[in-house]
Amino acid sequence: MSKINKEVLNQALDDIIAFANGEEVTLQGETKKGKKRNFVETIDLQFTLKNYDPRRDKRFAGTFKLPTVPRPNMKVCVLGNDIHCEQAKELGYPHMSVDDLKKLNKNKKLVKKLAKKYDAFVASQALIKQIPRLLGPGLNRAGKFPTVVSSSDTLENKVNEVKAQIKFQMKKVMCMSVAVGNVGLTREENLTNINLACNFLASLLKKNWQNIKVIYIKSTMGPAINIFF
Known about the structure:
Elements: H1 6-20, E1 24-27, E2 30-33, E3 42-49, E4 61-65, E5 76-79, H2 82-91, E6 95-96, H3 98-103, H4 108-117, E7 120-124, H5 125-128, H6 131-135, H7 138-141, E8 147-149, H8 155-164, E9 165-169, E10 175-182, H9 187-204, E11 212-219, E12 225-228
Parallel strand pairs: 5-6, 5-7, 7-8
Antiparallel strand pairs: 1-2, 3-10, 3-11, 4-9, 11-12
């Protein structure tokens, strides 16, 4: 069950949307003038943990599919067989065939450049086992090992599924951030995404909500607003 106060979250979201629309908002007694940008701002969930020792406690990792895609412009590259490459071309997705991957020649710099270029990857089932042999460990190290597209999946659905996924992974720091919405979504879509993401995060932690020190939501160019403390 969520421990996020409904009224606090509603007000925070209203302020974020208003600021993104160029309106004035009052935060902690200070009035700030927003600015409308020429792109759709992402809304991030930023949080800090407590009573957690990254060196001693078990590090957690988990992925969760949100009901609404938070980053529709997320760049997903298809590593595909002939059929999936053809479909990717028709759908306007960036794609690479086995021959394209072979041209990288396992060059660490080129693989690192490829991993940086895209937010995520999907790969045909027939190709997935070849990825380490063709590219080495580069994509895995970047945390971007491809999601499998099976013969029964439609490529468009799989790419949208990847775009809707968020990942929480404990590393060496106690502060983390994930994209959970954007200012172009409806109020309800953003509220649902935020609440589900917070609940999922709490479920990954040893002492659930007791391990969360603070949570903020923040648009790309806007101020961070506290929703849990």
